[in-house]
Amino acid sequence: MSTEPIKEDRDRIGLRPLARLWPYVMQYKGHLVGALFFLAIAAATTLSLPLAVGSMVDNGFSNADSAFVSNYFYALFAIAALLAISSSMRYYFVIWLGERVVADLRRDVFAHITKLSATFFDTAKTGELVSRLTADTTQIKSAAGATASMALRNVVLIIGAIAGMIYTSPGLSLIVLVAIPIIVLPIFAFGRNVRRKSRYAQDTLADATAYASESISSVKTLQAFTNEHLVSTKFAGAVERSFEAARSSIAARALLTAFAIFMIFSSVVAVLWIGADAVLKGTMSPGDLGTFLLFSVMAAGALGALSEVWGELSQAAGAAERLSELLATKPDIASPDNPVSLPEPATGSVTLDNVSFAYPTRADQSIVQDVSIAVSPGETVALVGASGSGKSTIFNLILRYYDPSSGAVLVDGVESVKADPADLRNRIALVPQDTTIFAMSAMDNIRFGSPEASESEVIEAATLALAHDFISDLKDGYNTIIGERGITLSGGQRQRMAIARAILKNAPILLLDEATSALDAESEKLVQKALDGLMQGRTTIVIAHRLATILKADRILVMDKGQIVEQGTHDQLVAQNGLYARLAKLQFDTEFESVA
Fold first, then answer.
1. Does residue 65 have a pLDDT over 70?
2. Burial 552-577 (b: 16+ CB within 10 A, else e)
3. Average of pLDDT values for 222-227?
4. Model confidence over 519-541: pLDDT tens digits?
5. Contact (Cβ atoms closer than 8 angstroms) between residue 267 and residue 172
6. What CATH number corresponds to the domain at position 125?
7. Do 320 and 360 belong to one domain?
8. Neighbours of 96 (CB within 10 A)
9. Which residues contact residue 593 at a Cβ distance below 8 angstroms, ignoring those fewer than 6 apart?
10. Mean pLDDT rounded to a whole number for the chain
């Protein structure tokens, strides 16, 4: 599908994306009023200068009245003081507004990202999202503060200066008014081109950031394969593309500035030429010419500055458009308008009723087909099967990261699509295979399972997870800052910390996703002991490749190509001599040959 109509629509949008900032600005009406008040004072004092100078030339110099001239200079000093005070206050208010609006915008964008569904993150690039949170919001900061203030100030000065020129000399003003459209219309046209190039520059910067983020997060892998040069070369190429896009945007802005300055000051020179001739002919006083000239220079300077401001606003509009697109993204998984309340107290039952599912990115490939599972409260059920058989997908559906294509998932008798996802997930504790450890203290990492938990409750959960001893041995104990992704901990320590997090959550349903598959024998024994304690009294669903960890399961469900092909206890499945028996034989070798 062609993208040209989309590009044309974006071109027509102009600065409209910046209108999304208005609700943020209106939250701080006091600061906005203060900014506008001091802006008006600064503009008024600036516009009074040409009138004062003209009056002084005609009345003070012509009459050789030194006292009159001195009084005018005293007045000009007072005006200068008032201008300085009002300008500094305007600066404070507008910069405060810019910083405050961007802080609120970043907060809302991040909060929105955290609520988006798994389908969004299946294709989104982390680095690009970070770029939007940082580079794009920084671009907007100046627009919401200083740039917008400068734009408004220059508009006021242009209007005031034109009014002053008309009052001083209507004839000369007509020349200026005719020239303004010739100057302004190309500025708008150039501004549209700047905005388009600016958006492309931001897009290429986001691509470079995304590639850098992915490479840094996998730095050990790239070093292991000695691909530092390859990765650096690719990133250098991405940075170069970003530079070329920025250079093109800068060139467009430079051309816009050159055109505006030439046209504006050429018109001032033309007006001065005609005015000087009028003074020589006696049809205009020197003071009026001076006043008119100052007003015209003021209008020209404001118009020239407005051309630069327009370029900056166009850049900010491109950034605002990108953020608007992100904020407009709706989560596929959301709470219904009238969610069904889950029963209290929780029982912990989980049911899948003829569930089928295909991931949106692979809609033509069904991962789960007509699966029905009923897990009773307190029961332990294990899912086994080859990689890609649909085990992890079952977990994704129970957690409602996705909704089934057909069939229904029920938790405590309530269909998941009819419940609030937050209420549903509050009843589930997850211990994943790849444990997420945050760059925060050990205490806060465990408290992630229950943010309101007390310190004693965290320590109790860590003790039950057999994590208390190794945490206590850390440099600062529970206050030790763990490296990003838990890089300073062993695999077993990370898993036990994840188990402590699940214990602290105290949810009735427990999902264990191959929690011991990557551990050595000693770590596995410790983690399994912690898991046995965690599973007591909870409905537990286990994904396991190591069959030794599920021998005590109440039921084992064997999955193959998205379907449940066998189910029963360990002994029953071995006796059936089917797929499970073959998997068991591969792992336990001759031990189960005699049992079969």
1. no
2. ebebbbbbbebbbebbbebeebbeee
3. 66
4. 667 767 777 777 777 788 889 99
5. no
6. 1.20.1560.10
7. no
8. 15
9. 585
10. 80
Q: Which residues pair with 428 in a beta bridge?
A: 509
Q: Which domain CATH number covers 463?
A: 3.40.50.300
Cite the DSSP H helix spans in 338-476.
391-398, 421-425, 442-447, 455-464, 468-472
Q: Span 365-389, mean pLDDT? A: 90
d(CA 93, CA 86): 11
Q: Show the domain range for 389.
A: 354-593
Band of the pLDDT at 373, cuts 50, 70, 90?
very high
Identify residue 303 by its one-letter amino acid code: L
> How many domains does one find in the chain?
2
Nearest to 292 by CA among 55, 54, 43: 54
Whole-model pTM over 0.85: no
Token pair for residue 465? 């997870």
How far apart are alpha carbons 522 and 465 in whole angstroms? 15
Q: What region does 413 belong to: left with phi over 0, alpha with psi -120 to 50, or beta?
A: left
β-partners of residue 429 are: 510
The DSSP letter of residue 275 is H
Residue 422, CA atoms < 13 Å, CB-side half-sphere: 7
Q: What number of H helices and E strands is found in the chain?
A: 22, 10
Q: Does the pLDDT at position 596 exceed 60?
A: no
DSSP-assigned letter for residue 549: G
Residue type, 343: P
Task: Calculate the alpha carbon distances from 312 to 9, 35, 141, 305 in Å.
Answer: 20, 20, 11, 11
Which amino acid belongs to residue 571?
Answer: D
The two tokens of residue 8 are 């044309």
Token pair for residue 469?
């001893």
Same domain (yes/no): 146, 207: yes
Residue pointed to by tokens 């004092």: 45
Can you read off the two tokens belonging to residue 574?
């071995």
| Residue 101, amino acid | V
Neighbouring CB atoms inside 10 A of 527's CB total: 26
Q: Answer yes or no: is 412 within a domain.
A: yes
Q: Does residue 447 sit within a domain? A: yes
Q: List CB contacts of 173: < 8 A, sequence separation 6 or more.
A: 162, 165, 166
574 and 469 inside one domain: yes
User: In which residue are the tokens 């458009």 written?
Assistant: 321
Instruction: Say whether the peptide bond before residue 339 is cis (omega within 30 degrees of 0).
Output: no
